[in-house]
Automatic annotation (TrEMBL):
Lineage top rank: taxon: Bacteria
Upper taxonomic lineage: Bacteria, Bacillati, Actinomycetota, Actinomycetes, Streptosporangiales
Native organism: Nonomuraea maritima
InterPro entries xrefs: SAM-dependent_MTases_sf
Full protein name: Methyltransferase domain-containing protein
Length: 224
């Protein structure tokens, strides 16, 4: 899987985040080389990031990131009609953001390694209700062709386990053609039944992959 490098600004848009949403502790699952934890933490937020790739160490990630950025760029060029460039302005600006985000991530990983946990869904090395908000981008649903309904159920329930307040997941369509994920409705019903949460799929002010303009929002009821 590619080492992706999304920016703080992209996270704010794809998860429709306000400053109030970032009060408390935020967990970024499958964060890759995102600069969200670095930038948000520098602004005073408390953010943790998890990804199994962190076990490779900063030097190994720095070595592979340029090639992964080129591979992602080639993928987007090969299927240009599947993407909307309005949010970025141009493919060139999109690539600039990728490089900037990756650079910030690597600097922060070296400066504050304790912020980055080598772990992957559906198992998180965190206590129950230990964070306030959990974010997860471009893993669940995106890779539904590789991870089945049972895996998604386990992953979502694990995020709900560690969250006190809310879980947000983006996007809600398959990678590539952007087709809806057939088990999304069933999964929402199961999560609501198990956790007592309320789920919704509101639109967000971000669309890059065509049709990927909604997130799954899970609001937990835990008296906190």
């Amino acid at each position: 899987m590619l080492l992706t490098s999304r920016s703080h600004a992209e996270y704010r848009a794809m998860f429709d985040l306000s400053d109030a949403d970032l009060a408390g502790v935020t967990l970024d699952c499958a964060a890759g080389a995102s600069s969200f934890a670095a930038v948000a933490s520098a602004a005073g937020a408390r953010v943790l990031a998890t990804d199994p790739l962190y076990a490779q160490g900063a030097d190994a990630l720095a070595a592979r990131l340029p090639d992964d950025l080129v591979r992602a760029q080639e993928m987007h060029r090969a299927a240009a009609d599947r993407f909307v460039w309005d949010w970025y302005g141009s493919p060139a600006r999109y690539q600039e953001i990728r490089v900037e985000s990756g650079t910030r991530f690597l600097a922060d990983l070296r400066r504050a390694p304790g912020r980055y946990l080598a772990a992957g869904l559906p198992y998180l090395p965190l206590a129950d209700r230990s964070v306030d908000l959990v974010l997860c981008s471009h893993l669940l649903f995106t890779w539904a062709g590789e991870h089945d309904h049972a895996w998604h159920r386990a992953a979502v329930l694990e995020m709900c386990r560690v969250a006190r307040r809310e879980v947000r997941i983006f996007p809600l369509v398959h990678l590539g053609p952007g087709e809806p994920v057939e088990f999304l409705g069933r999964l929402r019903a199961e999560v609501e039944q198990v956790t007592g949460a309320r789920t919704a799929c509101p639109p967000v002010p971000y669309e890059f992959q065509r049709g990927a303009d909604r997130m799954l929002r899970i609001r937990l009821h835990r008296g906190q």
